[in-house]
Amino acid sequence: MVELDPVEQLIVKSMQEIGATKDTSIKTADDIAKKCNRPKGLITNKLVVLAQKGVVKRVAREKAAGYYLIQSA
After folding, report:
1. In the 8-state DSSP scheme, what is residue 64?
2. Which residue blocks in the chain are alpha helix, DSSP H?
3. Which of 43, 47, 61, 73 has its CA 20 to 30 A from that of 4?
4. CA dist 19 to 3, 23, 36, 46, Å?
5. Please, what sign has the CA dihedral across residues 30, 32, 36, 40?
6. Is 6-69 a CATH 1.10.10.10 domain?
7. pLDDT surpasses 60 at 72
8. What single DSSP character describes residue 56?
9. What is the mean pLDDT of the chain?
């Protein structure tokens, strides 16, 4: 089990709620920030940390990178 701070927990919960749970339903940092009701910069930084912890996967795309959960922490 990976230790998550409160903001990281909020991100994981929000990603589950908006359906970003597999590689066919990728969401942008913008989508996740809106759901979390937090600044996009904070969410983007935490998504990088979550990717390093192996909780989310970042997918580089033409316009904005997308994210989805690879494990529910």
Report:
1. S
2. 6-17, 29-36, 40-52
3. 61
4. 22, 11, 14, 18
5. negative
6. yes
7. no
8. E
9. 93
Query: pLDDT value at position 37?
Result: 97
The total number of residues written for the chain in this structure? 73
Residue 21 C-alpha from the chain's centroid: 10
Q: What's the mean pLDDT in 29-38?
A: 97
More confident site: 68 or 71? 68
* Global pTM value: 0.90
Domain residue spans in the chain? 6-69
Cβ atoms within 10 Å of 62's Cβ, excluding its own: 4
The region, left, alpha or beta by phi > 0 then psi within -120 to 50, assigned to residue 4 is beta
pLDDT of residue 1: 59
Cα 26 versus chain centre, distance: 9
- Whose tokens are 């600044």? That residue is 39
Q: Where do we find the tokens 């940092």?
A: 29
